[in-house]
Amino acid sequence: MANAAEHSTADGHAGVIDGAGRLGAARLLLWALAGALAVRQAAAVLRVPPAEWLGGLHLPGSGGFGGSGGGYGGFGGAVASLYDTGQFAGTPFAGLVLKPLAGLASPSLEVAWTCVTLLSVAAIGLVAARALPDPVPRRTALLAAPALTALMMVSLPVREAASPGRTALVPVLLVLLAALRVPGDRPAGLLVGLAAALQPALLLFAPLLWLTGRRPAARTAAAAFAAVTALSWAAKPRDSWTYWVHHLAGTGLGGAPDGLANQSVHGALLRLGLTGPVEVLLYAALAGLIVWLGLRRAVRYARDGQLLLAVALTGCVAVAVSPVGWRHQLLWVLLAVAGKTGKRAADRRVWPVAVILAVTLPSAVLLPNLGALAPVRDNVLLLTAVAAACAVPFLARSSPYWRDPVPTDYGRPAQARWTRVPLLPFWRRVLSRPNLLLELLLIRVGYSLYSHIRAAAPASRSLAEGNGGQILGIERALGLDIEHAVNHAVVATPWLEAFFDFYYTSFHFVVPLTILAVLYWRRPGDYRWARASLGLATVLALAGFWLYPLAPPRLMPGLGFVDTVHGPQDLANPSYGAMTAISNQYAAMPSLHFGWSLWCGIVIVVLAPKGWQKLLGALHPLITVCAIVATANHWVLDAVGGAAVVTAGFGLVHVLSGPRGLRTSLPAQRADADGTEAEAASAAPAPGAPPAALPVPARHS
């Protein structure tokens, strides 16, 4: 007994040590990733020409950085005003802060500025990670700082704020220190006042301090802001008049107010075409509403112990209602991932993923280029900030779902033929329907990345035509070179040509999206199986586009093919007109036109309940392969390649998560954690027990 206890204790200690080792390794890897991203960002910043440093302060005739021509852009040089070029958008106090940098040599300033910027990002990550509300698992607490730092390094606000001369990160760090780390009210208020002097809209943190009981800090913040602004006015009266009166807190400086970089309510209204008194009144009404709702919610979460979330929401409000809220000032949106949303464990990732996508990817990647979506696409960061401040239902710490969300139901894979399949049993398929917003975002982002990678694939004309000759030679050897005969036979039959042209251009996207929509609504378990297989097949196809650029028959010179869809091509011109601007014309092997249609056919044949539906599903890939050959857009072997990647996609899903068929049981028959599941599954049903008590397939869940 004693020996057994000793062994158990030793095993427990070994497990703790192993867990600590894995946690330390994960933390080290995350910090290494953050460091690599920081080096990448530094390299991008150091490539900026010195003439573009300090946000437009390098004015003509100023003589440059510490050069013989005099001072630095308005600091004792030929030009006396900060705003003569209209490019500098900082406050007069920011100009005073940057004035000492005029004496530094250009290389020294570049290196020093870059280092300070990157260290500020790391400091923000550390302060924010330590402010996560209790209870925080040890793993989360240790990994949060490097993970958040890495995310900030790739975010749009930090990438733009790292540009020389922009001080947007400094106010964020000052406010975080004041609200989360500095214990005294007066030092905290001083930091907030300095942050507001650099970015006036951040004076909204004074009401937050006041409403949360820190009134001395609020008074100190207001007094510090007023004192610093008065000092700047005395030192630079002309610049202060230009900034505060003529340009109304910087509106129109550093860029057009209706430009996409101005992610504020004012900028959004201007982009919608509103001007004059109507726009001013509407802006004032919306700004007042956002301030009222946002500050109320921030105060509520601060009193609930979620101070980091309260600070992030107030920052989102400040940038949204400011006359100009530049993208590099919207780091607050990323900090709002500190809030928890959703009662179900499966929904907890929706808000963080949506925020991360919004702050790291261009809006063109998130939404298609459609006119109806322009108001949303042009204001993604603004809408995310307003949603965080006013609408997202973050959980209170008193909620019963704060600690214990509704767990996720997973299906058990059916018995596989080989004991080693699935190789990754921890990749489990969820039985419930995934979040629609998250699915739409991931599908859109995935397709956008696919399009960019496909367009960037090698497109050498000589290599693609040489590979086309290889394919044609192989087909002739195998007796499969039917493309020319089929193409000319269809061209000689106008109605058949019109049918195949319509089929080729119309069903490539419509049918797969329709199948995914129906499965999402009716059969969520099968939806995940189908979606994963399609995604993996598409990723495999990208490898083919990169490794084997191939000219389709319609772009092979001297073979006499007729391009029935796009019209005659000028094969003497390597750009092939406007078609090259649409997509990579040599991304033909494998054919995803046929591959996706084959995926559709397999899914319909496997899952459709009726025979006529299965027949239609089987006909779709058959008609598609005829269409791609008849229109001279693909070789026959391209279709073989498409079939290969689809087969591999289904095979990988089988290897990773098991066969499509899943088993589940009613809640009363679900096994407990100590291994009674096998006994329950193998036990005979009690007399009179309904058949539903036995394990049933999850296909109709």
What does this structure look like?
The chain is mostly helical and 701 residues long. The chain folds into two domains: 38-59 and 80-390, no CATH class; 459-660. The protein contains 28 helices and three strands. The radius of gyration is 31 Å and the shape is globular. Mean pLDDT is 80; it is low at 55-79 and 665-701.
Q: Tell me the strand percentage band.
A: under 5%
State the oligomer: single chain
Question: pLDDT under 50 segments (min length 5)?
Answer: 55-79, 665-701
Amino-to-carboxy terminus distance: 48 Å
Total domain units = 2
User: What is the percent of helical residues?
Assistant: 55-70%
Can you count the beta strands? Answer: 3
Which descriptor suits the 3D outline? globular
Query: How are the strands ordered across the major sheet?
Result: 1-2-3
- Tally of alpha and pi helices: 28
Largest sheet: number of strands, sense, barrel closure: 3 strands, antiparallel
What's the pLDDT, averaged over the residues? Answer: 80
Rounded to an integer, what's the Rg over CA atoms? 31 Å
- The structural class is mainly alpha
Layout of helices and strands:
Layout (H helix, E strand, L loop, with lengths): L1 H45 L45 H7 L7 H25 L7 H17 L1 H6 L7 H13 L3 H14 L6 H7 L3 H21 L1 H10 L18 H7 L4 H28 L3 H15 L9 H5 L14 H11 L2 H4 L7 H4 L2 H11 L21 E2 L22 H21 L4 H18 L4 H9 L2 H29 L1 H24 L31 H4 L9 H16 L3 H20 L5 H22 L4 E3 L12 H6 L13 E2 L4
Helix pairs in contact: 1-3, 1-4, 3-4, 3-6, 6-7, 6-13, 7-9, 8-9, 9-10, 11-12, 12-13, 13-18, 19-23, 22-23, 22-25, 22-26, 23-25, 23-27, 25-26, 25-27
